[in-house]
Amino acid sequence: MTLYGVGLGPGDAGLVTVRARKILESANVVYTPGRLSRGVAAEYVDGEQLDDLEFPMTRDEEQLRRAWKQAASEVAPAARNGTAAFVTLGDPNVYSTFGHLRRTLDRFHPDVELEIIPGVSAVTAFATALDVEIPAGAELTLREAPDGEAPVGPNRLVLFKVTDVPATDEKLQEAGYAVTYGRRLFMKEYESTITDDADELTERDYYTIAYAEKPEAIEGPASLFE
Ligand SMILES: C[S@@+](CC[C@H](N)C(=O)[O-])C[C@H]1O[C@@H](n2cnc3c(N)ncnc32)[C@H](O)[C@@H]1O
User: Fold this and answer.
1) Which atom of ligand 1 is nearest to the CA of 10?
2) Which atom of ligand 1 is nearest to the CA of 209?
3) Closest CA to 157 of 184, 192, 132, 121
4) d(CA 39, CA 64)
């Protein structure tokens, strides 16, 4: 009666947690919502146990509702009859479509219980990839910046969904931020790019994150030895 919502981390199978791996290895069926998550899960799950769920690339709410209802009606019987898992990149509870599945199951299949296995989120993994330290006590704001948007204000910003890097960059520079971009971080099968030059990232790629900080507002971490 339990569906496991499993966070896979940012894309490298070596960053899947021990607990997530145990669930994946013991599951009768593992549902994957896309090619990237399927590639990571496939490191620990036999091909016959993997099942792809298709979701339309649309913002049309009615179409999305139908797709999630359909997904829930596939997943619910599998969770009743055995061990079923639904995977997401990063953490299932952080800016994730997993929330849609959870709400749909609650509404139409309330007998299915959910257990979430947290994953390494891009929100924290970016710091290591970009070699950035967020010191204790610092403010850090997480926002989305799709289609050239650039939410500004806070001293330190992590931006998801930076699909139009040059347009977002122009606005961030104007607002006085120093910005570093990370594309496809920790995704072993793909080339990762880490750069502060927006011109290197003119192609649209959903898996792009930005870290922006206002240099004049940031004090470095205090040294213990000075
Ligand atoms: C809908 S959010 C999902 C976040 C995910 N649940 C997590 O906890 O990391 C998707 C956004 O996360 C960022 N992202 C996730 N994984 C990434 C990666 N490996 N490299 C760069 N950005 C990533 C991108 O900005 C992408 O648009």
Assistant:
1) 19
2) 25
3) 132
4) 24
Pair type for strands 113-117 and 2-7: parallel
Distance 81 CA to ligand 1 centre (A): 32
Rounded CA-CA distance 218/177 in Å is 11
- Which residues have a Cβ under 8 Å from the Cβ of 10 and sit 6 or more positions away? 89, 90, 120, 121, 122, 125, 185, 186, 187
Q: How do residues 136-161 score in pLDDT, each as one tens digit?
A: 999 999 999 999 999 999 999 999 99
For the domain 122-217, what is the CATH code?
3.30.950.10
Domain boundaries, the chain: 2-117, 122-217
pLDDT per residue as tens digits for the range 195-216: 999 999 999 999 999 999 999 8
208 CB near ligand 1 (under 6 Å): yes
- Asked if 31 contacts 86 with a C-beta cutoff of 8 angstroms, the reply is yes
Q: Look-up: residue for tokens 């104007």?
A: 174
Q: Per CATH, the architecture of 2-117 is what?
A: 3-Layer(aba) Sandwich (3.40)
**Residue 58 corresponds to which amino acid?**
T
C-beta 187 within 6 A of ligand 1: yes
Q: Does residue 6 carry a pLDDT above 70?
A: yes
